[in-house]
Each structure stands twice: as C-alpha cells, then as structure tokens.
Design brief:
about 425 residues, alpha/beta, four-stranded antiparallel beta sheet, 15 helices, 20 strands, globular
C-alpha cells in the first residue's frame, strides 16, 4: 500500500496546528507520504509561545489537561515537564472577598471550608459532588448521548442553586468556554467537567508551544514546511501564495474555521469566540500560589501568576501575571483593567509593566446547543477534507480527535479506489 500511495503523490495537510499534525502523524504511520504546509513561522496554530523580554508568553490563556485520551496516546508528558495548577479556583466575590471553590470529590477539605464559611449551601455542595461523580464514572460515549440543553439549564437540572452557579461556577466556566452566559452545549460541559475532574490542569515548562513542537518532531524530517501559505486547492493539489502548484493525491485542510471556509467551497465557517490576554511583569508575585483567580462580577475571564505555576516562564525572577478578557483589545481597555487587578490581588498595579497583549480571534468555536461533537472531515469535493476543533470540541482533545478522524477517512477512501 505504501508504494502505491507514494506513486499517487503525497497527501498535503494545510496547517500545522494540533489537528493537522495529528492527522499527518496517523497518515505517516499508515505508510503514506505527507507534506504539511504551514503559513506561519512556527507550528502550533493557536498553541504558540513567544519569547519576549525574558518571558514565555503563550498566545491566549492556555492550560494542558493530562486526562485527554488523545494526549495520553500521542505525547510524552515527562518530556513536557508539566507544572500543575492548584485544583479548583479562587473567586473574587461581589463583596470583595475570596472564595476557594474546588471539586468536593477531589478536595473535600476545601469543599468543607466553603460549606462552613457559608459560600456553598449543603444542597449545592451535594449537587456538584453528584454531578462530578457521574461525569467521572460514566463512559464518555454515554455523556455524548445525554439530552442536550444549555449548560445553565443542565446545572439547574442537577439541582445546583442559582447562587452557586452565578457566584462560583459561571465565573470559572466563562474562562473555559469563552462565554459568560452558560449557553454552551450541556454535552460539551459534561465532557469538559469530566476531563477536569479526572485530570490535572498544567503548563509545560517551556510554554504551551512545546506541545505542537513535540508532535511535529515525531514526523519524518522535512515533512513540515513553514512560511508556506496555500491560497487555493483542488483534489489534485494546492496553489501557493507565490503561484507554485503542488500535486497531491488528497488535501486535508486543518486550519481555523474562517480559512477553511475560504479555501473549501461549502465548508461554512462556524461562529467563534475571541479572547485577549494581557501579560504584566512585576517585581513581586501578588499571589503566592499556582491558582486561577476569577471574578464574580465578570470584569475579566481569569487571571493567574504564571510564574507561580512554572518559574520557567520568567528568566529574571520577576513575576508574570496573565489576565484574559472576552473580545478584542482596544484603546483604554488595559488601563481600565489595572484598577480591577489591583482590587482583586490587593496590591498596587501602577508600576506593573505591560509586556504583552494578544487578541486571538476564533480562539474557540461557539459550542451552543445543538452542537455535533464529531463531524466528518469529508467535503462535497472528493479528495478534499477539513478537520479542526471547530468540527469536534473546542479543546486540544477535539483538535487531535478531528485530525485522527480525517486520517481515518482519507485511508478509508483510498482503500476503495
């Protein structure tokens, strides 16, 4: 099969994000010749890490979940040198205090403090515990078939009090789904909650960009071409920005949804969420623990002292604070955020140095109900395929799973030729 596949030309994968790299790896392991064409100067797509002023700056707020099946299958966690976040989050409450919220099935002591401190009523704690236990124990295939509604409606169905939802869960989930109305599909919520309960949220010591770099390194040398933009395609190949045509036996488009929609007729883009992340440097850490801090008043999505999670994010000992907000950057937005951070961290932020601000358009698909958790990569044009988290779930797991599905469908179609 391998030699016959080679005579028909390589499979070209457009895009070296997680989906494209996962697809390419599976095709190579099946014996096909593959070329991955990436327009940017580095692999990763939205999973990129920049080196700037002595800091590692991830593009957008990123976490790495150790429980994802695709992650366990494809990556060496030891080589990533993962650094864990504290389980649970700190919530800056409407009253100006802090509440620590953690899954009661994993952190019973923290849950008990929330209960005795009056933050969470007993029935709220019991509801969250029951939900967590079910999502932990039920097979993923069962969770995928549950009746679909909004996340807010699902939490109410489980008996989680509205005060717990709005005061604790919504501030946290807003940063997970990049929306603060809890309109994300309940099926997506259950799969996400399951992954967080079963796994650990971490960061690689060398930044989130270490993940796609490890995937790319597993490909044969020379298979990934950076700075190579595809402007048009057909079942027989692709046209590059310089007018060059590359022959292909099949083309897999593993880009963001807008680029895929522009390249592939009929591949309509899906709605997405945009996030902006501000990075600040300060001489002293304003929070001496590797914990996410969220805001009940929804003035930002989340904030964290990244150097408390991984000291490798700074080369000179200064602390790096990362704060994400919904939408794009704009005049005065960072200045307005500083007094909010001063309140939340209980410190003066006037001398914090802004070292980065990055808006990530299309950071996640808007996974509102009804949302299909896995879509075929096949398109109306035979020989052309589309994959990415926008055709599965908005996560590293979703991107890799979509890439794996595209590889399976390419191989299945070739076997029928």
């Amino acid at each position: 099969m391998s030699s016959g596949a080679d005579r028909r030309g390589p499979v070209i994968v457009v895009g070296a994000g997680a989906a494209g790299l996962g697809c390419a790896l599976d095709l190579v392991r099946a014996g096909l010749t593959v070329s991955v064409l990436e327009a940017a100067d580095e692999v990763g797509g939205r999973m990129r890490t920049d080196h700037h002023q002595g800091f590692l700056l991830d593009r957008g707020f990123q976490v790495f979940n150790t429980s994802y099946p695709q992650v366990k299958r494809r990556l060496s966690l030891a080589r990533l040198r993962l650094r864990p976040f504290t389980p649970g989050v700190l919530v800056h409450t409407d009253g100006g205090g802090r509440a620590r919220f953690a899954d009661p099935t994993r952190r019973p002591a923290d849950a008990l403090r929330s209960l005795t401190g009056g933050r969470v009523p007993p029935r709220g704690l019991a509801a969250v515990a029951a939900l967590s236990a079910a999502d932990t124990l039920l097979p993923a295939r069962v969770l995928k078939r549950l009746p679909e509604r909004t996340t807010r409606a699902e939490l109410a169905r489980w008996g989680v009090p509205a005060a717990v939802v709005d005061g604790l869960l919504r501030p946290f989930l807003a940063g997970v789904f990049l929306e603060d109305e809890l309109e994300t599909s309940s099926r997506m919520f259950h799969l996400t909650w399951r992954s967080m309960v079963r796994g650990t949220l971490t960061l690689p010591a060398e930044g989130i960009g270490a993940v796609p770099r490890q995937l790319a390194a597993a490909l044969p040398p020379g298979r990934v071409e950076l700075g190579t933009r595809v402007t048009a395609l057909s079942p027989t190949g692709v046209t590059l920005a310089d007018g060059t045509f590359r022959d292909a036996s099949a083309v897999v488009v593993a880009t963001d949804t807008d680029t895929a929609g522009a390249l592939v007729p009929g591949a309509a883009p899906v709605p997405t969420r945009t996030v902006t992340t501000y990075h600040h440097a300060t001489a002293r850490s304003p929070l001496r623990e590797p914990t996410l801090l969220v805001d009940a008043r929804r003035r930002f999505l989340n904030t964290c002292v990244l150097t408390e999670v991984a000291s490798t994010y700074s080369t000179d000992g200064r602390a790096l604070v990362s704060t994400s907000v919904l939408g794009a950057d704009g005049p005065g937005r960072e200045a307005a955020l500083r007094p909010v951070l001063a309140e939340v961290y209980g410190t003066d932020t006037a001398d914090w140095e802004r070292v980065g601000a990055l808006t990530v358009p299309g950071a996640l698909p808007a996974m509102t109900a009804p949302w299909t958790l896995s879509r075929t990569s096949r398109t109306a044009t035979p020989g052309v395929y589309v994959c990415g988290d926008h055709r599965a779930t908005g996560s590293l797991q979703g991107a890799l799973a979509s890439g794996a599905r595209a590889a399976r469908e390419v191989l299945a179609d070739r076997s029928r030729e």
